[in-house]
Design brief:
Length: 152
C-alpha cells in the first residue's frame, strides 16, 4: 500500500492510496484556476488547539482550525491535522458567542463546550500572530462556545 508521506516527515496518520498522478495534478491545477472557491477564500484566521479524545481524556492531538466569520457572533472552522498543504481535514467546529449559546435549547447545550479554559490555559492560540493582536481576539474567543465534529 502506498502512502502520501513517510512517518518521519509528519505526525499525521498516513493516507492509503496511490500517489497523485501527473494527469490528476494537471487537472487540479486547471480546475483550480477556472473555478471559484468563495467559501474557502473567506477563511481568514488560523487557530491551533489541543483537542482531547472524549472517550480517553489522557489522549490529545493538535487541531488546526481555519476559520471564517459568518458575523460577529458566529464563526465556522475547518479542522486539519496540521498547518501544511498535505494536512488532512479531520473535522469542523462552529463557534458562537455566549448570547447565542445561552439561547440554545438545554438539550443542545450539552453538545457545546466553553473556550474559556482553552484560551486561559494557552491550549488555544493563533500561530505566528504577534501577542498584542492575538490577545484582542483571544479575549473574544474566551467568551465563545464551540461545537466540534471530528471525522477521524
Amino acid at each position: 500500500m502506498a502512502t502520501s508521506r513517510s512517518q518521519s516527515e509528519s505526525s499525521h496518520v498516513d493516507v492509503p492510496g496511490e500517489p497523485t498522478k501527473t494527469g490528476t495534478a494537471l487537472l487540479e491545477t486547471a480546475t483550480g484556476t477556472i473555478q471559484g472557491f468563495s467559501p474557502i477564500n473567506s477563511i481568514h484566521q488560523h487557530l491551533c488547539a489541543f483537542h482531547f479524545y472524549a472517550h480517553d481524556m489522557t489522549r490529545q492531538f493538535e487541531a488546526h482550525h481555519f476559520c471564517s466569520h459568518l458575523n460577529e457572533d458566529m464563526r465556522q472552522c475547518l479542522i486539519y491535522d496540521g498547518p501544511g498543504a498535505d494536512a488532512r481535514l479531520i473535522g469542523i467546529e462552529y463557534l458562537v458567542s455566549e448570547p447565542l449559546f445561552l439561547a440554545l435549547p438545554d438539550e443542545e447545550k450539552v453538545m457545546w463546550h466553553s473556550h474559556e479554559y482553552e484560551v486561559k490555559s494557552g491550549a488555544l492560540f493563533m500561530p505566528g500572530v504577534p501577542g498584542m493582536m492575538e490577545r484582542v481576539d483571544m479575549d473574544k474567543l474566551c467568551k465563545t462556545y464551540g461545537k466540534t465534529i471530528h471525522f477521524w
